UniProtKB/TrEMBL annotation:
This is Mannose-1-phosphate guanyltransferase alpha-like isoform X1. Belongs to the transferase hexapeptide repeat family. InterPro entries: GMPPB_C, Mannose-1P_guanyltransferase, NTP_transferase_dom, Nucleotide-diphossugar_trans. The gene is LOC111291642. Residues 10-210 form the Nucleotidyl transferase domain. Gene3D superfamilies: Hexapeptide repeat proteins (2.160.10.10), Spore Coat Polysaccharide Biosynthesis Protein SpsA, Chain A (3.90.550.10). Residues 302-419 form the Mannose-1-phosphate guanyltransferase C-terminal domain. Pfam families: GMPPB_C (PF25087), NTP_transferase (PF00483). It comes from Durio zibethinus (Durian).
């Protein structure tokens, strides 16, 4: 096929409200995919990467959030990128591969030669163009982005074995109990349209085994996800890893492309703060115009990689960074020090307050000489401090390693607490 005729579509899986409970209290009023990292919604980082793919014709977001949650974002990003971005709402969870099949007619309407499939809660440099080139060389049905991790952490992910020379995927196992490999699945894929036939075959095979859908109608999506056997799964619930990658491994159908760059999974607010920093660091190479500058004379002193929304007002005596993201309409007073934090829309940080290793929720207020801080262990439950929406920290109050739910007023200092 001539490259002039080739068309590519990208599908980004954004999940839905049944998942993302570990992201509370930040997901109470904003769907997790729209939570800002480095000043941009989480989903925008993979979208921006997709925009750089040659011959891309459409981007689809698939999930089971309410359509109204995404309507405004989808229309604004489509205008900004001059590229159709559409949100497709599943009637129920269909699994990582089943969602692709459920919307197959819409996804295939431009007759694309390749389909990218990305998970929204993955943070990486998304080397999609290089991956596409490699995929064409391999000539298989699909290519999986992989990365080497420490042997101790590998079993938290899908582990895989690949041929060191041909890069063929030889073996795939999801979260194994014994060590298989230090190569893991990054949740970023490229497929030819043959993937749709493969998904259909999984459903038909299940039907052939006499699985009656009526028996499983009462299963909640959570139970379905927990189910260890395919016997309990609905015919149209197809998982990419267990139902496609494992059975097709070693059949010269699937290949791997290894990234040497950063990769993280964004499951918790702690990881969101870490990934915001990774994206800010990447902006230095891809979008340096988004990073703030300042030497403390006319504008605040900026240290390292910092994003400041144009509508934010930051006092010139403040010192900001590294790894700080300041959202719309934020007000930062004189003498404030911000380090490794995300300050969300409409927050006020008053004179001489300090915020370190924290996420400060929308419309919150931090009083004069107050401190909101944490140890900065991104994996620990209380490793960063989180203030939910509209939390008021009064003057001279210290909040350490704590999570504060929305609409609370703190007039006493707290440490290592979850304040309900």
């Amino acid at each position: 096929m001539e490259s002039s005729e080739e068309k590519v579509v990208a599908v980004i899986m954004v999940g839905g409200p049944t998942k993302g409970t570990r992201f509370r209290p930040l997901s109470f009023n904003t769907p997790k995919p729209l939570f800002p990292l480095a000043g941009q919604p989480m989903v925008q980082h993979p979208i921006s990467a997709c925009k750089r793919i040659p011959n891309l014709v459409q981007i689809f977001l698939i999930g089971f959030h309410e359509e109204r949650d995404f309507a405004l974002y989808v229309s604004s990003i489509s205008n900004e990128l001059k590229m159709p971005v559409r949100y497709l709402k599943e009637d129920k969870p269909h699994g990582s591969a089943g969602g692709l099949y459920y919307f197959r007619n819409i996804i295939m309407e431009d007759n694309p030669s390749h389909i990218f499939l990305l998970n929204c809660d993955v943070c990486c440099s998304f080397p999609l163009t290089d991956m596409l080139e490699a995929h064409k060389r391999y000539g298989g049905m699909g290519t999986v982005l992989v990365i080497k991790v420490s042997a101790e952490s590998a079993n938290q992910f899908g582990e895989l074995v690949a041929d060191p020379i041909t890069k063929e995927l030889l073996h795939y196992t999801e979260k194994p109990e014994t060590f298989v490999s230090d190569l893991i699945n990054c949740g970023v894929y490229i497929f030819t349209p043959h993937i749709l036939t493969a998904i259909q075959e999984v459903s038909m095979h299940r039907e052939g085994q006499g699985h009656i859908a009526a028996n499983i109608r009462h299963l909640s999506s959570f139970e379905t996800l927990q189910s260890p056997t395919s016997r309990a799964l609905p015919l149209d619930f197809v998982r990419l890893d267990q139902d496609i990658l494992s059975p097709f491994a070693g059949k010269k159908q699937l290949y791997t492309y290894e990234t040497m760059d950063f990769w993280e999974q964004i499951k918790t607010p702690g990881m969101a703060l870490k990934c915001s920093g990774l994206y800010l660091a990447q902006f230095r190479f891809t979008s340096s115009h988004l990073l703030a500058g300042g030497d403390g004379t006319k504008s605040a002193s900026i240290v390292g990689d910092v994003f400041v929304h144009p509508s934010a007002k930051v006092h010139p005596t403040a010192k900001i960074g590294p790894n700080v993201s300041i959202s719309a309409n934020v007000r930062v007073g004189a003498g404030v020090r911000l380090i490794s934090c995300i300050i969300l829309d409409d927050v006020e940080v008053q004179e001489n307050a300090v915020v370190i290793n924290s996420i400060v929720g929308w419309k919150s207020s931090i009083g004069k000489w107050s401190r909101v801080q944490a140890d900065g262990d991104y994996n620990a439950k209380l490793g960063i401090t989180i203030l939910g929406e509209a939390v008021i920290v009064e003057d001279e109050v210290v909040v350490i390693n704590s999570i504060v739910l929305p609409n609370k007023t703190l007039n006493l200092s707290v440490q290592d607490e979850i304040i309900l």
